[in-house]
């Protein structure tokens, strides 16, 4: 999946792509056709850079409800001939998730589309998972035949079916189908379930990787074999090393950390850092200076995991380095530094935004640290990150940092955060948004009554509406 093209933050499309609360507020006051066009653009071209940590589906579903939006564009997208050519989940996953929320809100047209796509679409498993949470038994039973027809009845097809049943995210449809009154359906699903369980047992009985009694050298070789085939195994290898290494092996481990193969060097650095070895910090610094990109990344990661006072002290000396170790030092001080480190953390934050922009991966830790350390003069930078970042996950972190550093936050950004796509951001807003704005009170009441809202958000809302009520 290519990185999405994100419109400027001052446009309606840019606001909706980011999942900002202002996106909903602007869409509700814009011409309906314009708002629906921007909404459809977002749903059909997933704007998230990391769907595993960013939410959009409920946010977009609520806006479809508010706009009484038709689903013609989603239908055309799902059943376009391209669906058979581009089977990547990223093409249809967001649209299917939006339909799932709309179905839970009672939109019958969304439920019908999900059923139809589960029967004929390429990303049918996602649609089936959405239906498993929202459809009735009769609707799911009607899908048994078309879903099973996707798998041939030869050995290869049955093996594929068994793997699908074994790995199903939502097991409800398969359980229903195993009890289906049609023998041809029930027998096949039961056999697939049994085959999947047997396969899982066989894999557990045939583990790959280190065995009891392995030597330190064998662990290093295993880690290098992983790198040779494109798999980073130094983290589990370091855990194995902790089990097999003794005091007599320290010299070999130090030698590997200085000049071993990439796999051995990464493993040794991780092992030494996790054990707070007195030579770990010097070896990490050397690895960043002369190691390969793989070794540098592993060394920096190992350093950031360290919790010792010595590591924090070393971070203070490294924080101004213009390299990955300097960036890692800034993040460590943000996470574990004290009041004396405020200037270094602020400098790291400003440098990251100036050099890499508002979506720099390093910003998550720096933004959190700015809030943790209460660096009030960082508020202008945090506001910039809040407005401009395309990541709703990072924006939520910026909102938490602003709540701790910016006195204007409750009457400012906290208001729009009540409509944000991230539930943690809505929870924050529910706890601190000023209620002098009538929109705030209305939205709090809506969130309290919305069955799709997260429990944590509703608990925060109830604490504002009626502070005397006990927390749920």
Word description of this protein:
The protein is mostly helical. 68% of the residues lie in helices and 0% in strands. It has helices at residues 12-18, 21-29, 32-44, 57-67, 72-78, 89-104, 108-120, 124-134, 137-141, 144-148, 155-166, 172-178, 183-205, 216-228, 234-244, 250-259, 262-274, 280-290, 293-305, 309-318, 324-336, 342-356, 363-372, 379-388, 392-405, 413-417, 423-432, 438-449, 455-465. The radius of gyration is 26 Å and the shape is flat.
Shape verdict? flat
Q: Determine the mean pLDDT.
A: 92
Pairing-aware structural class of the strands and helices?
Answer: mainly alpha
What are the secondary-structure elements, in order, as H or E? HHHHHHHHHHHHHHHHHHHHHHHHHHHHH
Query: Major sheet: size, sense and barrel closure?
Result: none
**Total beta-strand segments:** 0
What's the tally of helices?
Answer: 29
What percentage of the residues does DSSP assign to strands (E)? Answer: under 5%
What oligomeric assembly is this protein in? single chain
Describe this structure in a few short sentences:
The protein has helices at residues 12-18, 21-29, 32-44, 57-67, 72-78, 89-104, 108-120, 124-134, 137-141, 144-148, 155-166, 172-178, 183-205, 216-228, 234-244, 250-259, 262-274, 280-290, 293-305, 309-318, 324-336, 342-356, 363-372, 379-388, 392-405, 413-417, 423-432, 438-449, 455-465. Helix content is 68%, strand content 0%.
